[in-house]
Amino acid sequence: MRDHLSFVLNGQTERPRGIDPAMTLLQYLRREKRLTGTKEGCAEGDCGACTVVIGQLRGGRLEHRAVNACILLMPMLEGRSVTTVEHLSGVAKGGRPVFAKNDATLAEPGNGLLHPVQQAMADCHGSQCGFCTPGIVMSLYAMYLGATGDLPADDVLAGNLCRCTGYGPIVRAAAEMGRFPGPASEEGTVSGDDMLLAAIAHDETVALEHDGRRFLSPGNLDEFARVYEGSPKANIVSGATDLGLWVTKLHRDIGTLIWTGRVRELQAIREAAGSLHIGAGVTWSELIAPLARHFPDLGELLRRFGSLQVRNAATIGGNIANGSPIGDGPPALIALGARLTLRRGMSRRTMALEDYFLGYGRQDRRPGEFVESVEVPLLADPVRLRCYKVSKRFDQDISAVCGCFNIQTRSETVVSARIAFGGIAAIPKRASAVEAVLMGRPWTLATIAAAQRAFAEDFAPISDMRASADYRAQVARNLLLRYFHETQGQAATRLVGSGAAFA
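The chain above was modelled as a monomer; its predicted structure follows.
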């Protein structure tokens, strides 16, 4: 068991001791290391001003991803690397960056020339007040490294808010940065991080303690189960996209935390026996491709799941175990008939996902028991799953209503129906009364009208800042009607961001 952290910061191995488990990476960078390029804007993972790039060895390969430093707890860096904006280029004498045109001799750290991402931002006038610029640069740097796959710049930058520039110049910079040759040292820097991370890799449990707060980081699944069984009142943390706000906004004492991030068994995805088997520690970014391949509409919903930085940290298990009635993951998974495996020590049990949620803030989870994996049945006709997210903003907004429909007909008669909603009840919940009206009846407008009236038996929505109760009730009814029309080939236009649309 180790009592200190081991991680890599801007190409240097760090082994700090006495770290407070409640300290965020942003606080450490600014206060302890004086790396003040990383900014604090919202301190809740919304604005992206604190974006840094994290590196992690996965299967012997170094993977990078952009994350929000403001809600990432320091102990979650164990075995990882961190790159901040200061590391991208050299600085000229006197501490002032040189805004010189890059050319084929783009020079190395210390020469004062800018990284291609920074140069493109300068050339395209992508910065005005400059406060948000470091975070934007780091999101684009992840894109430059190829860490964002084939995501367009609009999606990559959805988690970076800019008050002054208007985004157009920033998007142009994203298109232009590839024209500049990269520093010759960059490949060596990446491979250097690879070797440094391999040198600090281990399977021991890391146990940190400071001022009554504890952070435990087991290195394998059996040890994780043993540790949690012995500390059942501890909080399990995966991405900290919610728990991080306990620290930054609520100033809550976090007590004891147990982290899933080093448990490889919780980060596995496999397809077997007509189902996807997903470890609870798999991030939503990692899930988009396999889920979109089998369920295209769910993939489109997940593209609106927070920002890229949030999806890079948040996990499917955390989203479920958190039990929030406004989480966008559970409605779709319930509609698909997903099942959970829960584990306590060496014993396991399975249940339907909808049975896990008992009431607001209450789940069917015993002391010392945790969500180990999620099983998602595959559909013979994946197009019949439709997911609808209704919110005030397209990107980075909480659903007023999230409705997911999986209805099968045979000879124009409904033979199965699974309908689930988030945002309109105290828990993610099936529309059981609506399903009962649909079952065995012809798939017609008359049946839809009868089923719409049954929504009142399933839900008693509340009014809040996102929507009124009447609005939510009407939207739920309308989404069933919309689903019907889409199955009849009368698809309405759906917004997909940036003014574009698809039918």
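The two ends are 55 Å apart (CA to CA).
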